[in-house]
Amino acid sequence: MIAAAENLVHRYGHRTALDGLSFQVEPGAIFGILGPNGGGKSTLFRILSTLMAPVSGAAFIDGLDVVRRPREVRTRLGVVFQSPSLDRKLTVGENLHAQGSLYGMRGPLLRRRISEVLERLRLRDRENDIVDRLSGGLRRRAEIAKALLHRPSVLLMDEPSSGLDPAARRELMDYITGLRDEQGTTVILTTHILDEADRCDRLLLLSHGRSVAAGSPAELKARVGGDVVEFEVSEIGNLVASMAERFRVRPQVVDGRIRVEIPNGHRFAAEAVEAFPGRIHSVAMHRPTLEDVFLDETGEHI
Amino acid sequence: MSPATPGSVGHLLPVAALWRREFIRFWRERSRVFGFVGMPLVFWLIIGSGFGNLGFFYPGALTLTVMFSAVFSMMSLIEDRREGFLLSMLASPAPRAAIALGKIFGTSTLAWLQALLFLVFLPLAGFHIVPLRLLALVAVLFLVSFTFTALGFFFAWQMDSTQGFHAVMNLLLFPLWMISGSLFSADSAGAWMRVLMRLNPLAYSVAAVRRLLDPAVPSSTPGLVFSILLTAGCGLVLLAVSAAAVSRPSVRNRA
Known about the structure:
Chain A is α/β, with parallel strands linked by helices. Chain A is 37% helix and 28% strand.
């Protein structure tokens, strides 16, 4: 295990942010922590990045306790914060130089590493640009370059694609998967964006400070029985009960719509519309998404 | 995988990097450069206009300038926190003391360099100073700017608004400066005021500068060596408490 949490508990006053959270991360995986804002992701991130100690429980990076051996953990950890951490008045190169010094690097080694990360993130021609003048996507890449400078064994990212447009987001995930494939870097990221979560190797679904489900995106989606069919109706009334009785399904009401998980959803949808003439306005069907998984496990949206 | 021996980043590199950063930032902000050079110029204009008893006010004004530019330059620490740069420093293996020292050292060097610009006007203020004393004065001015930058660091670390920091520091520094012997000497003050002035740490910074500029000061002015030692002592204590504040395990993380 390259990273792990054991029964982490954290509270802010009376509010519980983490409520006995445990998980393990295998080396070379992209491990996503998916959950709504306020679910405990940021708290977990602060603990893993050694910036805050939990009330109880323990977390480990590379087998090292983050509370007891923070300095050693920090040398193994690359951290990309949600808020930009580059000095906006400095150039990309100057930022990398300062970062290298904070990690004890200098001289030819530092110069080599700087040119490596610039190459890897295709920022070579941006080395002398002042950060303030870069676009959002370029800045995020420079943030990642900064975090990778000391070749961390674990890259920790807090909502890496927040504020990026879909194209920049896809590009970012391509970098992350490339990093895993070529360098074997383990990536731990928090997210509430489904596209991003779908590209992780393993996911932990976090709600109210607890793990509600864990597994690969495919495994998690397989938990949902078949397809998801949603009916928009004029009046719910006894429709839920009738549908349950007639088709032996378990309909839920979500946001005023009737939602059914069932294999061969298209056939069921057609039969249901015929069975309740005039009462169903529209039908929508989709393959299960992580949102459905989350909804099933918590009754809440991400 | 790690470049340096894990867990053993020295102090020197981080301090040098943070020091360098302050200079680059300063140089890139034209308005700061103008203020830096402009302030001594304004000072010079006022002096040139023939202001009474200049010899007495000069040391206090010099100390005031160093002190305020040193303390208020630490507003940048609050900005660092807001912008996230501070978080990334704290997530690095750099020793916490090196983070405090680098920041304090960088900003205090700038405040000190500005003070040196003021020394150009020494002859105008009627001071004729031998080179050795001038050298000592240059060193004392660094000490004063270091001490007050450390003071600024300690307070700025606890605060998240630059306005709040400004208000608190003004409230603290103005009264201390007024009874520091800059505006009136202890001789002309009542007994109570004299006690207060003796307890005022800031008075010793002013006294050290005054003693170096003019050997014939009122006898009530604290001694040179004692004043220097006390200022240095305050600086070291403030550096230590600042480093301790940075080392506190739970960091308020607002970013």
